[in-house]
Structures are given as C-alpha cells and as structure tokens.
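Reopening: structure tokens for the zinc ion complex, inputs below.
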Amino acid sequence: MSTKPLPAVAYLKIPDEGDPYLEGHRCDACGAIFLDARRVCAKCGARDRMHATRLSNTGTLYSWSIVYRSFPGVEVPYISAVVDLDDGATVKGNLINVEPDPANIAFDMPVEVTYGDALGRRDRDGNAYLSYFFQPRTG
Amino acid sequence: MTDAYIVGVDMIKFGRFPEKSVPQLGAEAALLALDDCGLTIQDMQALYCGNLGQASAMVGQRILQQIGQTGIPVVNCANACATGATAFREAWASVKAELYDLVLAVGVEQMGRGLLGGGAGRSGIPREGLLGSGTMPSVFAEAGMEHSRKHGTTFEQFAKVSVKNHHHATMNPKAMYQIETPLETVMNSEMISYPNTKLMCSVNVDGSAAAVIASERKARELGLMDRAVKVRASVLTSDPWQERDLVMPDVNTCTRTAAAAAYEMAGAGPDDIDLVELHDCFATAEILHYENLGLCADGEAGRLIDEGEVELGGRIPVNVSGGLLSKGHPLGATGIANIYEVSTHLRGEAGKRQVEGARLGMTHVIGLGSACGIHILERVA
Ligand SMILES: [Zn+2]
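Re-run output (same inputs, fresh job):
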C-alpha cells in the first residue's frame, strides 16, 4: 500500500515537491491539447510533435448537468461540469461548493481547480487517491 | 450502379422479453420482413446483422439457425446506437455494388434496465460521481445545456419534446408505451440528470427490426415495385476532431456532415423531406438535431417545438412513431426500426399516425463514440 495518495487519473500529477497539477499534451504543429500522452495528433495528424504541458488551474464553466440518479454508492445530487481551462484544454469534473440548483449555476462562471481526497474511495489494496474538483473562483 | 429498394420491412412490437433469446428476437423480425414481401430465406443471398450486446457471439448465424441455415454469407456488425443503420447500410452497399441483388438486414437487441454509460475507469477506483458523470442521461444533459448556453433553450422546451413523442406513440401499436404524458407530468417526473427527467430518457426495451433490400431489376422481376421504397441516400460518418472531444462527445458535427452528404446524394434539401425519424435518445438530443439536420436554422429549435411544427400535422413531423422516448430504444434494432417507420408512411400504411402524402422521409441515428447514420427514403408507387 502506498503511503502517498495515488492520482485518480493519469493526467493528475503529484510531484514530490510542490502542488499537484493537471497535465496536458500540446501539439506543436496545431496547438491542440490532449489529456493523454500520444504520438500522433488527432486534430492535424502530426507525428512526434507533442509535449507535456502544465494546465491552468483556472477556467470557466462551459456546460453542466445536475446528477440526481447514479450508481449505488454515488452520493447525489452533484454537479457534473465541463470546464474550459484558460489555456485551451477542456476538462470534466465535479463542481463543488455550489448548492446543486440550476439557479446557482451560470454559464461561463469563473472556476478554479482544487485538489483533495477522492471522496474516500479506495482501491482493492486500500490505497487512497487524490482527485481534482472545480469550485467557484473567489476574488 | 443499380438503385436499391426496400421491398420488405417490419419490426416486432417493442417490449421486454426476458424469456426469449437474442437470435429468437432477431428471427421474429426477419420472418416478418420476409413475409412482408412474400419471400423466404432461400431467396436471400446475404445477411447483415446488427447487435451490440452479443457483438462477439455470431448473432446473425444464430438467427439463421432459427429461420434456415442456407449457407449464405453473414456479416455481424456493432456500431453503438448506429448499429442497425450500419447493418442496413452494408446490405444496401452490397446491392448498390451489384454483389447481390436480394439481401436481408436485421437489427436486434435485448436490453438490461437502468443507467447506461459511466462504467469504471482503468484506474483503481470508480470515477462516476468523482470526475463528473459519464452516464448517458448526463452526457446528453450536458449536450442540451450547451444548446441552452448558445440559444437560451429552456427545460420546458426540452420537456415538450417528450410530450410530443409520447403523444405520437399513442397511435403506434408497436410502441412500448401508448400513454399521454402532459407537460407537468414530464417536468415533474423523477429528475435523472438535469434537465432530463425520467420521461425525457429513452426506454430500454427489447426489440428487433428487419428489411429486405433488392436491386431494381430484381424488384421488378419479382413484381414488388408497388410497395417498394427507394433508398435515395445512405450515409455513415464518424466524428471529426473537436476541441472538447475528450470530455464531451460531439453528436452535432457528425450529424451535420452526414446530413449534408445525404441531401447531396438524394439531390434534395430539408424542405423536400416530409417526415423525420431522428435519434431522440434523450429529449435534449432531439432539440439539437432539428438544427443539425437542417429542419430549421441554428437557434430556432426551441421555436420549432413551441409552435408545433414538428408534431404530426405540422410542417415537418418528427418521430411520429413515438421515437426512442416512447416507442423504445433497443440499441441494435433502432436504426432499422426507424427505416420501418418511414417506409410505412411512404407506403401510406401508417394508420392513425400517417403523415398524409409523404413522399420523402429521413432516418437518423447516432452512436456515441461516435457514428452517425442517415438514410433518405422515397415512395415509388
Ligand atoms: Zn496537431
């Protein structure tokens, strides 16, 4: 069992020193950003032009849904959010610290990425995980 | 190249049939379609079978074990919710290419109940509810909310789609449900993923549909032109790269490219189409496709549903079968069931829900991942 939490997804990086961050892979030929490491760009077809890039921790809400029905064990309701990060990547996650009511959610509302325990979820070996969430940006 | 015609087509009444096997369900539709044109399995030169749930289990061959093992070539295909349309299109292509002149296409599915999508990720913990939602109701809710952000579409307008399609289904004896659902009922039913309530989600049902496709020469030789339906366009697309692809499946672009190609192939435009069966897997999705298929200008989908233009009797009736919302959505069968519906109107045999004078109709399905299949069909007689 790992003493440090493991990343909930491969594009969440937990450095030994410093804060966790989300990592993307940008195509030098066309600028498209992907969340997975890859050799060929799906947008323009360029080969071996990808480089890893640290994604922005701020962005705006592009689209959303309030989820009331999910699988057993998943706490509802919660807000599923599609967020455009400021550097052009789009990431999906839970929008937290907002009451899940349509009246409280606005398109393009400024959000920031925050990192925390993966809602207490553990794998078979008992490892804890670090995940990311979105919350309204303050100030 | 020859023209290709649907000479026999039918579907079973959609429902829940846990006591039957997938091949048995597929066999029922196959026999109905053969009976519809008075032919037998001995007349068929190939079988194209669409099924998703048992995609690696030779469903087409097992259907032949139910209706006649004649030794013909069988192609099994899976393409998400475009599976049935893909099987039909492969059958059509084989006739167009003059490889065969009489072939059978079958789509069949036996469904579980409950939520689709949002399965466990590859990492060690489940992601659903941790990194947003991957369930189908949520994915299509977010696609609908994208339309809201662009055009101000409201929860009520999305809900009206479901009112309309449930109403249409009351006139379709082969639909799963024949019940009216007034607007308040739709809006107040259990919220699944805002803005999709339970009555705005397609119904998981078991079902099958089948079509017999003939070359022009064969259709004439057999004297089957009276009720034949001409396939004017068959198009299949996948999703081109989009900037939000990785987190937000794009059901719009591949529908737009498919529609443009289909209109060009048919030498027709949206104004020429008399009825449309489109992929209303969720009420939100139907709104998007009014614009994607060119039934109205961008931003006018809300007005289209508000003003009743897409109801039976309106300018361009959409999903008069009841759609996936009320007729039901057996994934692999849906793409051929839609073809059955449009063909039935073109033949003037749709009874109470008949779109009067229908000459040209369109079917549309979309499978996430993504695959879009569009067919434009024409009355012959
Ligand atoms: Zn590129």
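The two ends of chain A are 40 Å apart (CA to CA). Chain A is about 0% helix and 45% strand. Marking as resolved unless the reporter disagrees.
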